[in-house]
Predict the 3D structure of the following.
Amino acid sequence: MARTRAPERTLLPSDEPLSLLRKDGTPVDDSPLAMPDDDVLVELHRRMVLGRRFDTQATALTKQGRLAVYPSSRGQEACEVGAVLALRPDDWLFPTYRDSVALVTRGVDPAETLTLLQGGWHLGYDPYEHRVGPQCTPLATNTLHAVGFAHAARLKGEDTAALVMLGDGATSEGDTHEALNFAGVWRPPVVFLVQNNGYAISVPLSKQNAAPSLAHKGIGYGVPSVLVDGNDVAAVYAAVREAVESGGPTLIEALTYRIEAHTNADDATRYRTSDEVAAWLDRDPVDRLEAYLVSRGLLDHARRAAVAAEAEELAASVRAKLNVDVVPSPDELFEHVYATTPRHLREQAAALREELA
Amino acid sequence: MTAVSAQASQATQVSMAGALNRALGDALAADPTVLVFGEDVGALGGVFRVTDGLAARFGEQRVFDTPLAESGIVGTAIGMAMNGLRPVVEMQFDAFAYPAFEQITSHLAKLRNRTRGRVSLPVVIRVPYGGGIGGVEHHCDSSEAYYTHTPGLRVVTPGTPDDAYRLLRDSIDSPDPVIFLEPKRRYWAKGALDPATSVGFDRALVRRPGRDVTLIAYGPMVATALETAEAAVEEGWDVEVVDLRSLSPFDDETVCASVVKTGRAVVVHEASGFGGYGAEVVARVTERCFHHLHAPVLRVTGFDIPYPPPKLEEHHLPGVDRILDAIARLQWDDEVVGSYGA
Ligand SMILES: Cc1ncc(C[n+]2csc(CCOP(=O)(O)OP(=O)(O)O)c2C)c(N)n1
């Protein structure tokens, strides 16, 4: 059961994940988290449905050879959507490779979020347009970027928080610890959202961590910590919103599960059982919110159909944009290595152009 | 005494550490987005006192001590630069920058390229590097090749106090990340400082004109090369000394003009030779100046060993005699000399 927290932000996370909705969609009465407004809940639902459809579409595109690889976040929609919608317009998001749905939720063109995986270029979107850092592939390195970014905002007198996403495995990397320590000392408005989906590729949490929870790691750094049910979108939203508005650092562990394999290239049957997957399917974040919304009369057939239709449109548009062969210009190889292209690169560009002529 | 050093002795003399301190102070005063941070750079003024007095002058918001974590220092600098600031960070010693290697190579160097120019990272990483100060292990590495091998980074190193000021100001103004290598054994060497002059960020400089052979040096070896040139006069050789200043990008033009003129060249550096920065210089010179060369381009470098303990470092570090020997090996005309290797 969720423990009632002291009014001031505590360093110690609860023993059980905080939640607002039980697995069957019934509300938790005594949660210390604030239930989001109805219109927010309805929007959270819409974005989760869109995100899931995007995810299945991207997986399909991988099978068709349109993407080199795709790390699915199916099952983690409550984190991807709840955390991003909790951000204020000026806040920044520092995502990882798994967080394409978070980017889509933030408003990045869905096809552009796939540029990296499509192989056309490393990054498809403009970080400044949507206030989203580049998706980070080396684990945990983005945690420091978020801390630095939030610290700079503080120095400039801007009310801007940074949300950095990372996985359970990434909490073992040195950069996570350096970032938490910097955050504890400098106290910038930064939120570390650990999506604990149980595995780092094949390695289970038990081989990754010996602390009572990943959220407990905040204590040693003086960073207030929260453990939430990561399949409860209302809880993730509430926890992130509270953290963002606190003006200081927060570590949030969201307990969730990745339903698909690590990527399409991974064989998850080698390291986990179908019973385990089934148990988590039973805690589906979309179903859970739908049950609640229906019970409240906030979701009916018409609304459900409208959202489903919108999701199909999104998928069709992603398909159309991705079904085009990308032929980047070799000239791009030499651009943007430096602000002004130095002579040796101009020479190499000219040589390649001649070779291709 | 050369014309340059005669002039210098008349002007105000300043140490290289002092010149760097002045450059940081002037940059902080000129641009409110410039920040200086790292380990012990605040109250202490850095272990080499390069940041002396800056925290008191500019306050803790602009000049501050960080937790002891190199990856953290560079990683947060990246985030700050993304948010419009110009961090100048200090790595305490060359080998202690290695924990930050991932942030430097995967993010600092590449973010402009990865984002097609949308993210610009004007970050300067100051690294006291090299030996010659009797330091114990991990305090004397010459790590330039790691950085010059990484596209997207500028790598520069001053050879004189005057140039230390200029290069650091240019580095802080640079829209691209700069690895600023400070030859720590020259921190206390004095010279004239003229903050007004500018020679161009990417340019190599002819420190001493000569006819017979070009010594190509940088950082701590510029002074050694100049000393060698003086000693060579006795042998009847007129030695030209080129100070690279910018290791990356490399100024082929100035270097090749010198080698074409002299027909002979020796590259000098403290770092190990194998796979080292000198190999790049030799290759570039050979590719571009082959028909003007009277002899192969030689390297005089540290041995291919981990940096030795202080009591043996004098054997490892290139000195005047070893460089003179290399010049001697270049002084034939038609006669073929058997071995050029070390
Ligand atoms: C520094 C680094 N080491 C190794 C890898 C290879 N790798 C990619 S994802 C991954 C597992 C990450 O697990 P976790 O942090 O739990 O995130 P998840 O993939 O589950 O979202 C590994 C080992 C990497 N990307 N970066």
